[in-house]
Amino acid sequence: MSSAVGTPAPGAVQPMVKAEGVHKSFGHVEVLKGIDLEVAPREVMCIVGPSGSGKSTFLRCINHLERINAGRLWVNGHLVGYREKGGRLHELRDSEVAAQRRDIGMVFQRFNLFPHMTALENVIEAPIQVKGVRRAEARERGAALLERVGLADRVHNYPNQLSGGQQQRVAIARALAMEPQLMLFDEPTSALDPELVGEVLDVMRGLATDGMTMVVVTHEMGFAREVGDTLVFMDDGVIVESGDPRSVLTDPQHERTRSFLSKVL
Ligand SMILES: Nc1ncnc2c1ncn2[C@@H]1O[C@H](COP(=O)(O)OP(=O)(O)OP(=O)(O)O)[C@@H](O)[C@H]1O
Ligand SMILES: [Mg+2]
After folding, report:
1. Interval 159-201: pLDDT, tens
2. Nearest C-alpha to atom 2 of ligand 1 is from which residue?
């Protein structure tokens, strides 16, 4: 019974994320009504859908910030939040959940930087505190990451001295500093002034080119079309359709998708 769980068939590439019948309720309200999907290593999956359809909740489940009520979720072959033993699921301890979460970078709409720390200090905090990286090494790597997101000249600035786009790029560098295997983005450009959106999308495009596995909730259809390998349309807690972004955007198969796209394109 238990042997099949999380064990891919020989020769198959193990998905970076696999969701099987994921259900999530808040009280009596069912927000996720059975989500099935797979994200392959190096894949960029974009998720779109109306407000309240469950996109953020699903991302938070991947990261085990929310506990699912039914179904199963794996990240890189590991059951999220549980260990399977003798065909039964046992909940992981908080420390074990934290260890799982360490491999997943998350970037939110609001950048959530530490206001009393410089860009560099924000980036090196977790590697030092959580991973025990030596300060000198963390600073060196942190500076390189800030350079990678185009902020070599902003290393010693505090968040309130940075634009929204710059703050979001620091947030991305901070997530990358933990060397995640998977990056989750929840509307990373929605809080930005329009002229700052491009610089953040450029950084994300670079990450995708470098082979990072990414799940991106976004309203940026241009980004989804150009960078996404897969586009998922969610509505009311289910995946209505998914596929190659160009096909979904130009030839949606479902009325709900058509109606949504007609409002956002
Ligand atoms: N902690 C919570 N407690 C109760 N209800 C919640 C909670 N978090 C989310 N919800 C509800 O779950 C539903 C889905 O919310 P979610 O934030 O996942 O939607 P979304 O697709 O990300 O929407 P948006 O595009 O507005 O960000 C909403 O009806 C929301 O009110
Ligand atoms: Mg959301």
Report:
1. 999 999 999 999 999 999 999 999 999 999 999 999 999 999 9
2. 26
Q: Where are the domains of the chain?
A: 17-262
Cα of 159 from ligand 2 centre, angstroms: 24
In the chain, alpha helices (H): 55-62, 94-101, 119-129, 135-148, 164-176, 194-209, 221-227, 245-250, 255-264
Nearest residue by C-alpha to atom 12 in ligand 1: 31
Ligand 1 centroid vs 91 CA: distance in angstroms?
24
pLDDT in tens, 1-32: 344 444 556 667 899 999 999 999 999 999 99
CATH of 17-262, one of 3.40.50.1000, 2.60.40.10, 3.40.640.10, 3.40.50.300: 3.40.50.300
